[in-house]
Design goal:
heterodimer; A: about 100 residues; mainly alpha; about 0% strand; elongated; B: about 375 residues; mainly beta; Porin; 16-stranded antiparallel barrel; two-stranded antiparallel sheet; 4 helices; disordered N terminus
Chain lengths: ~100, ~375
């Protein structure tokens, strides 16, 4: 009995350690997801602002805010008129409407 | 011995079972984290594999509303003095944009303007109203590479006629001397056009336009019979665009015309540099323009950030073929202009400029302009949620 008790204590400690590791990993996962949900849109806005100034700023001063339903039409017009790329248009629309 | 043996066996089996059950949550959680892509977790890719936002990726969420028709209008009230002769130039330029579905757009722009001069028989001004259909076209965005346009379109020769012509966009109110080269009698063509822009590499974009126009003599839809193309390379990093244009006239002297354009906005500075060169049988010339917004001035920031200073130098050299209807100068001409604009808002501004024209046969003159420009844009409709 005395030889098996330390083994049981060791197994119990191992189980507790594994359980804690599992909880920590799960907590890290949820924490990363929440943080990324904040950083990804910010990166998108930064990219959209950069593309807005690089493309629209070639001819226009920065306009005041337009409603999203107008932005959709204006960007389609500018895609034709200024030959914006599809990628630029999508990113700029996302920037101007979020 | 047996019991000990059984006990040892039970203990070993139970030990490994407990160990597996304990490790499972950690392994499962770690496995889920590795299986998910950065886009699914929303996490930014780290290290050397990190890159720019993918515009086609799930992060780019477009608004769930439909595009609505827009009514827009550019308004200008310009007073110009050329060689001491005053001119009043009121102008209204309405624009209509009608999106249909996800790929179609009907758009049009007209111009109503007048060139009023003092009435020599008494007080007041005299002049007539000029009406122009700048463009009325149907656009179909076929894919990311090609857009079809049909109808009456602005001739894509150089960059001024298509992009910078509206009174509320241009930095100086006078037209470049070479603008009539290859833009036809009205700056527009009637026919069909293929155009588009796409990424060549992550650091370079290609834009192009190729067109065919038929001859019309009915005002205000007059146009020449010609075909042509324009292509440009745009580098988003340094914000530098350069390209060239070509046009072949399918009437009269069947001449060719070509030109080059350049636009550069150095990213750290609120500076616009633009230039065009054009050559045809009628003549050749260039213009170079620089516009600097004083938004980085170290003093009086609140006021100076609204101010824009502009300078433009241009020259025109008469060609062999003289066509009095094309609005080109009839003699070799040089013109330097200096402008000062004040933006009350992005859509309302005060514009002014002074220029000195040097032309042969006594054509030297001072050119002044003062005016106000305004741009209106309103939606027509509420739009529906998609």
């Amino acid at each position: 009995m005395s030889a098996r008790r330390p083994m049981s204590i060791g197994i119990f400690a191992l189980v507790c350690l594994a359980f804690l590791l599992g909880r920590v990993a799960a907590a890290q996962q949820s924490g990363n997801g929440a943080g990324a949900q904040e950083s990804a849109p910010q990166k998108l806005l930064d990219e959209g602002e950069k593309r807005f100034h690089a493309n629209c700023g070639r001819c226009h001063q920065s306009p005041h805010k337009f409603p999203p339903r107008m932005v959709m039409t204006i960007e389609r017009h500018m895609r034709v008129r200024a030959t914006l790329t599809d990628e630029d248009m999508r990113t700029i629309v996302a920037y101007l409407t979020q | 011995m047996l019991s000990v043996s059984l006990g040892a066996t039970k203990c070993g089996w139970l030990r490994w079972l407990l160990l597996a059950l304990a490790i499972a949550p950690a392994a499962l959680a770690q496995g889920q984290m590795q299986a998910q892509t950065p886009a699914q977790t929303g996490a930014e890719p780290q290290g050397p594999q990190a890159g720019p936002v993918d515009p086609n990726g799930p992060d780019v969420i477009l608004p769930a509303v439909t595009a609505v028709p827009i009514f827009s209008m550019g308004v200008g009230m310009i007073t110009a003095w050329q060689g001491g002769q005053p001119n009043l130039e009121p102008l209204i330029s309405p624009v209509g944009l009608i999106p249909i579905g996800q790929k179609w757009l009907i758009e049009g722009r007209g111009t109503f303007e007048s060139d009023l001069i003092p009435d020599p028989r008494g007080p007041g001004w005299k002049g007539s109203l000029e009406k122009e259909a700048d463009y009325v076209q149907v656009d179909y965005i076929a894919n990311k590479y090609v857009t079809f346009s049909f109808g009456r379109y602005l001739t894509p020769f150089g960059i001024f006629n298509e992009r910078l012509y509206p009174v509320w966009i241009r930095n100086l109110q006078s037209d470049p001397l070479i603008l009539p080269i290859s833009t036809g009698p009205s700056g527009a063509g009637t026919g069909a056009m293929l155009r588009g822009g796409f990424n060549l590499t992550p650091k370079a974009e290609l834009n192009y336009a190729t067109y065919f126009s038929t001859k019309l003599t009915t005002s205000p839809f007059d146009s020449d019979r010609d075909w042509g193309m324009r292509a440009g390379i745009y580098l988003p990093g340094p914000r530098l665009e350069f390209g060239g244009s070509f046009q072949h006239l399918l009437q009269a002297d069947h001449s060719n015309a070509f030109g080059f354009h350049l636009a550069w906005q150095p990213p750290p500075l609120p500076l616009d540099i633009r230039a065009e060169y054009a050559r045809s049988s009628n003549g050749s010339g260039y213009w170079v323009e620089g516009a600097y917004r004083l938004s980085q001035a170290p003093v009086w920031k609140d006021e100076l950030r609204h101010v824009q200073v502009v300078g433009r130098m241009q020259e025109y050299y008469l060609g062999k073929f003289e066509d009095e209807d094309d609005d080109l100068p009839m003699v070799n001409t040089k013109l330097f202009e200096f402008g000062l604009n004040y933006y009350f808002r992005d859509d309302v501004r005060f514009v002014s400029s002074y220029g000195r024209q040097f032309a042969a046969e006594g054509g030297n003159a001072n050119v002044w302009t003062v005016g106000v420009t305004y741009r209106l844009a309103v939606p027509v409709g509420h739009g529906d949620a998609r």
